[in-house]
Amino acid sequence: MKEYDIAVIPGDGIGVEVTAVALKVMEKVAAKHDVKLNFTEVLAGGCAIDKYGEPLPAATLETCQHSDAVLLGAVGGPKWDNLGGNQRPEKALLGLRSGLGLYANLRPVKIYDALKGASPLKDSIIAQGVDVLIVRELTGGIYFGDRGRTTVDGYATAYDSEVYNEFEIARIAKNAFEAALLRRKKVTLVDKANILESSRLWREVVVKVAKHYPTVELNYMYVDNAAMQLVKNPAQFDVIVTSNMFGDILSDEASMITGSIGMLASSSVREDSFGMYEPIHGSAPDIAGQDLANPLAQILSAAMLFEFSLGLSAAAREIETAVESVLKRGYRTGDIWTQGTEKVGTKRMGELVLAAL
Ligand code: IPM
Ligand code: MG
């Protein structure tokens, strides 16, 4: 029997609740596929600040480094909002991404037939379906660039810098083109090349990478226009490749098209099969601890883990099919509930998915 070590970071808020549910799903699916998963729970985020005084203890990073994959819930909450920049729970995420070399963040945005009614967009707009993969650069750009405070002309002044080199751009572009080959063969580079020098370098480098993928169509879009096009005509997009910050913003926007951010999974990967899997949503302190959270994004993140880190695509498809069947039968958590469907809590939703497997 094959064994895999999975580091589990439930984190804060609803991260804890959705992860507990996803682990049960993973166990059931693993058993079906004759695979043994060894889960090691570690702390990161606010709970780590409370216990160890820092958001990402060295032991947490080490456990992740020695595992085959990481499943992460969410970090943060109002309790830690007043801490300084380096002591905030979010710092754990950035530390995990850079410490594990996870430079590519893949965020699939798919609209489920059963959930079309939950989309805030008109039927006429989503009629052609929505199936976009956002490929976000994750370990560079303005989130990692030089930042600081100074005084200019007597005024307190702050700066953050957007820095990218050609190596970083080429490697994320490759992820986008490879993904496009398995999809509708279209890559849109989203940037701000009319203003930013870094965007102009992105264009130069991405064009070069594109030469190796003659069957994939490449087009460009300024980020402001892309924000608009995503709600005007989302069907035009297949793969979007973009910088860390633009990807952060656009993926939240795109997720809303599907009805709820509570549905979207993501993977953060590098060249080998290792990856960190997490829902796109945050720790949602307003609904934490009340059995209200939607666990489906985390369950779908677990599906991505099976597929990319364990090479078990069949297991991933089983999880996705189970989720779809539960939705088809009309069960909804509060975030995706619409008139005529049955509202269930986090745990019950998990049980329904387990039963459907
Ligand atoms: C995300 C989140 C994080 C990010 C925050 C919490 C640091 O918004 O994963 O998109 O900006 O990357
Ligand atoms: Mg974000």
Proportion of residues in β-strands:
15-25%
| Overall 3D shape | globular
CATH superfamily of the largest domain: Isopropylmalate Dehydrogenase
Summed up, the helix count is 12
**Residue ranges: pLDDT <50 for 5 or more in a row?**
none
Give the topology string: H per helix, E per strand. Answer: EHEHHEHEHEEEHEHEHEHEEHHEEH
Q: Helix amount, in percent?
A: 25-40%
Just give the CATH class of the largest domain. Answer: Alpha Beta
The side-by-side strand order for the widest beta sheet comes to: 2-1-3-12-11-4-5-10-8-9
Radius of gyration: 20 Å
Give the CA-CA distance, first to last residue.
Answer: 21 Å
State the major sheet. 10 strands, mixed
β-strand number: 14
On the 0 to 100 scale, the average pLDDT is 96
Give the topology.
Elements: E1 2-11, H1 14-32, E2 35-41, H2 46-52, H3 58-65, E3 69-74, H4 90-99, E4 104-110, H5 123-126, E5 131-137, E6 147-152, E7 155-160, H6 166-181, E8 186-191, H7 197-210, E9 217-222, H8 223-232, E10 239-242, H9 244-257, E11 265-269, E12 275-279, H10 296-308, H11 313-328, E13 331-332, E14 342-343, H12 346-356
Parallel strand pairs: 1-2, 1-3, 3-12, 5-10, 8-9, 8-10, 13-14
Antiparallel strand pairs: 4-5, 4-11, 6-7, 11-12
Helix pairs in contact: 1-10, 1-12, 6-7, 8-9, 10-11, 11-12
The structure holds 3-isopropylmalic acid and magnesium ion.
What this model shows, in words?
The chain is globular and about 60 Å long. It has helices spanning 14-32, 46-52, 58-65, 90-99, 123-126, 166-181, 197-210, 223-232, 244-257, 296-308, 313-328, 346-356; strands at 2-11, 35-41, 69-74, 104-110, 131-137, 147-152, 155-160, 186-191, 217-222, 239-242, 265-269, 275-279, 331-332, 342-343. The strands form three sheets. It has a ten-stranded mixed sheet, sandwiched between helices. Strands 6-7 form a two-stranded antiparallel sheet. It has a two-stranded parallel sheet with strand order 13-14. The chain has twelve helices and 14 strands. By secondary structure, it is of the alpha/beta class. The chain folds into two domains: 1-102 and 272-357, Isopropylmalate Dehydrogenase (3-Layer(aba) Sandwich), CATH 3.40.718.10; 120-257, Isopropylmalate Dehydrogenase (3-Layer(aba) Sandwich). The model has no long low-confidence stretch (mean pLDDT 96). Helix 10 runs antiparallel to helix 11 (313-328). It binds 3-isopropylmalic acid and magnesium ion. Magnesium ion is lined by residues 248, 252.
